[in-house]
Design brief:
The chain folds into two domains: 77 residues, no CATH class; 32 residues. It is mainly alpha-helical and 123 residues long. Strands 1-2 form a two-stranded antiparallel ribbon. Helices cover 47% and strands 3% of the residues. The radius of gyration is 21 Å and the shape is elongated. The chain contains four helices and two strands.
Length: 123
């Protein structure tokens, strides 16, 4: 699998992958595309516009196909590292939470996720 639109836009050159059969190759292509798009977004570079399949000149016996991917899902699933965040809350709230064995990290994560989802729906 080869992505002609990405020849010069990634720090490691173009994107290419393969698979044991067509289904596996498409799965690998989706993974490779998500990784490349994630890297391009993280580097602050512009994502190239996809070529029209009719404009791609393929050799005989070569399939031209579109590959879709969800970089939001990819990041949540594969780049899910934890980061330490320092927050300030009132002392009484901290003490009451500790008495009740509150998982402050989980509550903060849930709250931030809910906030981001609400912001996304407002756009």
């Amino acid at each position: 699998m080869y992505f002609p639109d990405f020849d010069n836009c990634t720090s490691y050159g173009g994107i290419a992958t393969q698979g044991d059969d067509l289904k596996h190759a498409m799965e690998m292509a989706e993974d490779a595309l998500c990784l490349a798009l994630y890297s391009i977004e993280k580097e602050g570079k512009e994502i190239p516009r996809p070529s029209k399949t009719s404009d791609i000149k393929a050799k005989p016996n070569v399939i031209v196909n579109l590959v879709a991917c969800d970089t939001d899902f990819y990041v949540k699933f594969f780049a899910n590292k934890s980061a330490k965040v320092n927050v300030t809350i009132p002392l009484w709230l901290k003490e009451e939470g500790e008495k009740r064995h509150v998982n402050f990290s989980q509550i903060l994560q849930n709250g931030v996720k809910a906030y981001l989802q609400k912001q996304k729906s407002l756009r």
